[in-house]
TrEMBL record:
Protein name per the record: Peptide chain release factor 3
Family: Belongs to the TRAFAC class translation factor GTPase superfamily. Classic translation factor GTPase family. PrfC subfamily.
Keyword Glycosyltransferase: no
Domain of life per record: Bacteria
SUPFAM superfamilies, sorted: EF-G C-terminal domain-like (SSF54980), P-loop containing nucleoside triphosphate hydrolases (SSF52540), Translation proteins (SSF50447)
Protein keywords: Cytoplasm, GTP-binding, Nucleotide-binding, Protein biosynthesis
Record's function text: Increases the formation of ribosomal termination complexes and stimulates activities of RF-1 and RF-2. It binds guanine nucleotides and has strong preference for UGA stop codons. It may interact directly with the ribosome. The stimulation of RF-1 and RF-2 is significantly reduced by GTP and GDP, but not by GMP.
Intracellular or extracellular location(s): Cytoplasm
Domain Tr-type G residues, every copy: 11-279
InterPro entries noted in UniProt: EF-G-like_DII, EFG_III/V, G_TR_CS, P-loop_NTPase, PrfC, RF3_C, RF3_dom_3_sf, RF3_GTP-bd
Gene name for this UniProt entry: prfC
Gene3D superfamilies according to UniProt: P-loop containing nucleotide triphosphate hydrolases, Peptide chain release factor 3, domain III
Annotated binding of GTP, by residue: 20-27, 88-92, 142-145
Annotated HAMAP family: Rel_fac_3 (MF_00072)
Amino acid sequence: MADTKFLEEVNSRRTFAIISHPDAGKTTITEKVLLFGNALQKAGTVKGKKSGQHAKSDWMEMEKDRGISITTSVMQFPYNNSIVNLLDTPGHEDFSEDTYRTLTAVDSCLMVIDAAKGVEQRTIKLMEVTRLRDTPIITFMNKCDRDTRDPIDLMDEVEDVLNIACAPITWPIGMGKEFKGVYHLLRDEVILYSTGQGHTIQEVRIIKGLDNPELDEVLPLHADDLREEMELVVGASNEFDLEMFLSGELTPVYFGTALGNFGVDHVLDGLTEWAPKPLARIAKERVVEPTEEEFSGFIFKIQANMDPKHRDRIAFMRVCSGKYEKGMKMLHVRTGKKVSISDAVTFMAGDRSAAEEAYPGDIIGLHNHGTIQIGDAFTLTESLKFTGIPNFAPEMFRRIRLQDPLKQKQLLKGLMQLSEEGAVQVFRPLRSNDLIVGAVGVLQFEVVVQRLKSEYKVDAIYEGINVATALWVDSDDDQKMAEFEKKAYDNLALDGSNNLTYVAPTMVNLNLAIERYPAVNFRKTREH
Ligand code: GDP
């Protein structure tokens, strides 16, 4: 039996990520969340678009130049009686697979929607990913201080487009300049909003009970409408149901304004109360429970040059079970080597500090000198392989070529390492010496060229190439597979880990191939 302190630590963890379309307000919410976590004295320094300051999580010049965050960083802070881990996901239009993989390391997600715009395309895509594991979703309708769409329409859209039931927890009173606050359905409280307090934790005025005459005094123009509307809303919408939330079938919905720092604390209250404590993780061999005392964890992301002074690489590990203690010995399962970890980093409040200990649900960073790969498991002694950490079929392709042809070996080495990290995918056609780079977002191409230059001292350029998609291929039927490999030779390539892929010049070509070789599986994801 695990000891009580350990169980308390495990059960206090809440590990989540924000999913949203660019500009919906993810960065602003992160600032306010950290403000509540007392992590920042004054909100407004995470991205610092306006102030010109940059948070510790920004790591590359390129990011600073563009004021965007390409990489995932991790923030930990206490809230209520919980320890909250917020994993940041890139918000820019061009994003990498890191976003997807980060979602494998969390136990719940906060979905942020711009209430003036409704459900947008990136949100749809990210929701699809969370569906792979039925991750519980909390919804925040942001920017209520602007003219928004009708809240009932917004919820209908979430239900129809994202196929998840909505249960309003708070309900907006007015909108835009007339935004007065929210009614909290579960607490039966009206919480009043006052403008101009976005940078502080507000002293809010609360009116207890919808029937309270105080409401008519304070909101004479809204009180009766609100009462009527709430009757309608309660009748027409779902009640919150914890089990349905935990199985990803229903989302609690909150309204507010991140910029005005109103409503974010309601979300955090819901998150700490309802969101799951660290969930079990599935390994090929067995299910790993967070309450097990033996240590285990998996790598979901590798990031280079986080700290320009160190130029090191950090492998991000989600702790799945047991306790990490400074200096402990772990088994790096893939290599079979025992390693002593004395300098793992944690991400308390956006700053990196030496981790003394970490518990299931926490993220720690291991210094990586090229031996750690995405998907790797670390354990005390057991041989485990965690599943569900995917590679996604890239959607964009370019041929990469050297300025100086003598450095071909360096180029290949660099590309293979970058593909190991998951920064990009590399394909080597069987029939030629071409190197094809595949990415999920355009920005990845730029990052790769920049890193090849700074870390491998090679100048590379891209050329267009006629590739529509590359899918991983395999078959249970060895004979049929051999036949396929012979006939489709011109379209086959090896990826960075020597897995066979089918590189299709057009979708028509792909569809023909799928028809012609029914015994062959064409896969859009490959597990590490
Ligand atoms: P991200 O791209 O999702 O990280 O979005 P940001 O947090 O950077 O927000 C995008 C823009 O919307 C910024 O100009 C914010 O100041 C603005 N914004 C964020 N939240 C609100 C809000 O509640 N109300 C209003 N009016 N603007 C907001």
